[in-house]
Write a structure and sequence with these properties.
By secondary structure, the chain is α+β, with helices and mostly antiparallel strands. It has 26 helices and 22 strands. The chain has a 6-stranded mixed β-barrel. Strands 14-15-20-17-19-18 form a 6-stranded mixed β-barrel. A 4-stranded antiparallel beta sheet has the order 13-21-12-22.
């Protein structure tokens, strides 16, 4: 029986190829969108789940004056291990960098991490060469990833070989692990032993919160119990005189999507975006299913005689329903094959668009395969349900007498479906417009300093530090270079945090401020605006603990309760540095625009300079970079020339929003395309239902314009209703999303007017094509058929 249903379904679709092609296109595009969104979500939710027992691993976070930070002091890992025997293993991770040399191969490596010897007891990384038991035990040992080992040593086993780091320290390779999955919240190429840095390894102190601390416990219940014990331990340490800070645990598998902590190793995702794209995927699939229903009803009168004859010959309603479901299964099956082919073909462009790494063997993942089959089954049932139930209930007497009215009882449902389609389209169009506008705002917002034409060079080794004055002088010899300044950290990722004390403030009343050690030219180098006092000068004294000079921003002035006019000359203590305020600069965004501008103090300390900010003359980028590279070769021949543009640093802060904007634009366009197919189906149905009325009106003298207006007016009402329902929902969702940024665009009317204009234009174009076709039909043929 099933074979007969499928055979008849195939024959029916072959007879009506135009209808089948239209339906196939809508379903294939809808399913392909759903599959792409499924792969995106599957990648997002799989972060860090490749570790054995990933649900039993936690990262320790620290609360710093109400701010959640992902780094902790060096004392935390050993302290927790001693205090809580239920911790099976703890490890610290530190992000460093270095120039690595092996024979003639030399490279400036940014992904050079340090970790305790217990790292491989916490995390799962299969070894290609070497053993996890001995990999990081001794000082000056390092583990490489497989691709890194290939870069330096080719196909040979590098265990036992020696790498020279920063031209002064030799590291022995003790292991090679498989490359880290793209779904890891940390990405290193080199993992050196923590004991290589004796100061860190031997000191257990509460300051210097630069370390990522992880613990493994027996089970999730033990993790929850541990989280309740930590506050009591911190209280005991504070009572004993330690300047301890509150600690809490973040599940490893939640870091990528749920962490809002500062100082993440890499920009994280956002669980709200996952829910948003999941909703978009379901809505697009729903639109595709609605199309199938509308197109099926548009051809219902053509199937009515078939249903009537079948019922007259003894067919039951259940048999007819199964027949129509079989047609749905065949069509959805073909659409699923086309969708999978499209996903396989467009996988690489999708990866480039989203920054993901969807493999060519994505169907080998059992969860993906089950989801694909589930999508096919659900779409088949959902798309085929209404046509099967509606068409199978036709009465043979009405059909054969010609008194059937084509299912007018379902007209309200069909209109409701169109309203739903275009209400969804309103949400997608307006949402995409606001997302793209916010992204443009983030990229073009005045940051309070000029980040354009600003190049950052590393200055983090002893040789460069010694040559810093002459290097800086030689860089300034070219007219292509406007200014050069030494800074400790790069704006965009500035994270130095220190205690802030003001006159009359008790020690336990300490507040916090961001800090930036820099040289005397920092104001000109970064393009800051001095609004009171003055900038540092070449004659500024080299500071000691009691004669620092500080340039502060407006946020710190406000925090201190001063005014801009009275701030200059005020005494201040920052992180044990005693000094006075030399000047005030206008607030500038030294971190993401998601965050409000925090207090910031800049102090003159050339010894703490680890980066060079070089401002290029506009229009001379090529000449400037050539000059920088030539000067670098003279002063830093021991390391490769490497640089970053500061605007690239800021762009990286909004990677998730950029991906969201690109995906939203793509999927909203495809959703509109699918919705227009559904509108075309409903328009065809309306024309079919009113063909006798149109014929009579034309005989009585109605013009083509009047007939077209008659047919389009009903649809314009539906689109207007869809727009009216979609706008409030869109506004609320966008308002909540924009509130996640401390600085954002105002939510004005233009995105909604844009959505309405697009919907109106597409509706007129789609419906008018059917209306004109009906209006130009000879009424004699129409009335003769009646």
């Amino acid at each position: 029986m099933l074979k007969n249903y499928l055979l008849i379904a195939v024959r029916t679709l072959r007879r009506q190829q135009g209808y089948a092609a239209l339906n196939l296109a809508g379903l294939a595009v809808g399913i392909a969108c759903g599959l792409f969104i499924l792969l995106y979500i599957q990648d997002e939710v799989s972060y860090d789940r490749h570790h054995e027992g990933a649900e039993r691993i936690y990262r320790v976070h620290m609360d710093l004056e109400g701010r959640d930070i992902a780094v902790t002091p060096t004392i935390v890992a050993p302290l927790l291990t001693r205090e809580f025997p239920e911790i099976q293993a703890a490890t610290r991770l530190y992000l460093g960098s270095g120039v690595v040399r092996y024979e003639d191969h030399v490279s400036d490596e940014r992904a050079f991490y340090f970790a305790d010897s217990t790292f491989f007891e916490v995390f799962t990384h299969p070894f290609v060469h070497g053993s996890s038991n001995e990999a990081l035990v001794r000082p000056q040992t390092v583990v490489l990833t497989a691709s890194t080992a290939q870069r330096y040593f080719g196909a040979e086993n590098p265990v036992g070989r020696t790498l020279l780091v920063d031209n002064q320290t030799e590291y022995e390779v003790t292991g090679v692990i498989e490359d880290l999955p793209s779904t890891s919240h940390y990405q290193f190429d080199f993992l050196a032993s923590f004991t290589s840095q004796r100061f860190w390894a031997e000191q257990e102190i509460w300051n210097m919160a630069n370390f990522y601390t992880y613990v493994r416990v027996p089970d999730a219940q033990a993790g929850q119990a541990l989280a309740t014990k930590i506050p009591d331990m911190i209280a005991r340490r504070e009572a004993a005189g330690d300047r301890a800070h509150p600690l809490h645990l973040m599940p490893l598998v939640d870091i990528h999507l749920r962490s809002t902590a500062e100082f993440e190793l890499d920009p994280t995702g956002n669980i709200r975006y996952v829910y948003g794209f999941l909703t978009v995927g379901l809505l697009i699939l729903l639109i595709a299913c609605i199309n199938y229903m509308n197109l099926a009803t548009a051809r219902s009168m053509r199937r009515a005689r078939e249903v009537g004859v079948r019922k007259a010959l003894g067919a039951f309603r259940g048999q007819l329903s199964r027949q129509f479901f079989a047609e749905s299964v065949v069509l959805v099956g073909l659409a699923l094959i086309l969708a999978l082919s499209a996903v396989a073909t467009l996988r690489e462009p999708f990866n480039q668009l989203t920054g993901k790494a969807v493999p060519s063997s994505f169907l080998a993942d059992p969860m993906v395969l089950l989801s694909v089959l589930g999508i096919g089954a659900v779409v088949s049932l959902l798309a085929g349900s209404y046509p099967a139930l509606m068409l199978s209930r036709f009465q043979p007497v009405e059909v054969l007498r010609g008194t059937l009215h084509g299912g007018r009882g379902g007209e309200g449902l069909r209109k409701l479906l169109v309203v739903a389609q275009f209400g969804i389209s309103t949400v997608l169009i307006a949402g995409t417009a606001v997302v793209m506008t916010q992204l443009q705002f983030l990229q073009e917002q005045n940051l309070g300093f000029d980040k354009e034409h600003l190049v950052v060079l590393p200055l983090n080794d002893q040789t460069l530090s010694e040559r810093y004055p002459s290097l800086k002088a030689d860089l300034l010899r070219s007219p292509a270079v406007q200014a050069v300044s030494g800074i400790n950290q790069v704006p965009g990722n500035l994270g130095w945090t220190d205690g802030l004390w003001l006159p009359g403030m008790a020690e336990d009343e300490m507040q916090f401020t961001k800090g930036l050690p820099a040289d005397a030219d920092v104001v000109d180098g970064l393009g800051l605006t001095v609004i009171a006092g003055r900038a540092f000068s070449a004659s500024s004294p080299v500071p000691d603990s009691a004669n620092f000079q500080f340039i502060v921003n407006e946020a710190l002035v406000q925090r201190a309760g001063w005014t801009v006019e009275t701030a200059v000359g005020q005494p201040v203590w920052i992180g044990g540095r005693e000094g006075t305020v030399l000047g005030v600069v206008a607030d500038f965004h030294f971190r993401s625009l998601r965050e409000a501008i925090e207090p910031l103090a800049i102090w003159h300390d050339p010894s703490a300079v680890y980066n060079l900010a070089v401002r290029l003359t506009p229009g001379s980028q090529q000449a400037a970079l050539a000059h920088l590279e030539a000067t670098w070769a003279v002063h830093a021949a021991h390391r490769p020339f490497a640089y970053r543009f500061l605007d690239d640093v800021y762009d990286r802060l909004y990677r998730n929003e950029q991906q969201m904007g690109r995906l939203a634009g793509l999927f909203s366009g495809l959703a509109i395309f699918i919705a227009c197919l559904g509108l075309l189906g409903l328009a065809a149905f309306a024309v079919q239902q009113r063909r006798k009325e149109l014929g009579v009106r034309k005989v009585l003298g109605a013009s083509v314009a009047q007939l077209v207006g008659l047919l389009t007016s009903d649809f314009l009402k539906l689109i207007g209703l869809a727009f009216a329902l979609g706008v409030p929902l869109t506004y609320l969702g966008l308002r909540q999303w924009l509130d996640g940024f401390a600085y954002h665009v105002d939510l004005s009317a233009w995105p909604f007017l844009l959505a309405g204009s697009i919907l109106l234009t597409l509706t007129l174009a789609t419906v008018s094509s059917q209306a004109l076709r009906a209006a130009f039909t000879n009424p004699v043929h129409t009335l003769r058929q009646e």
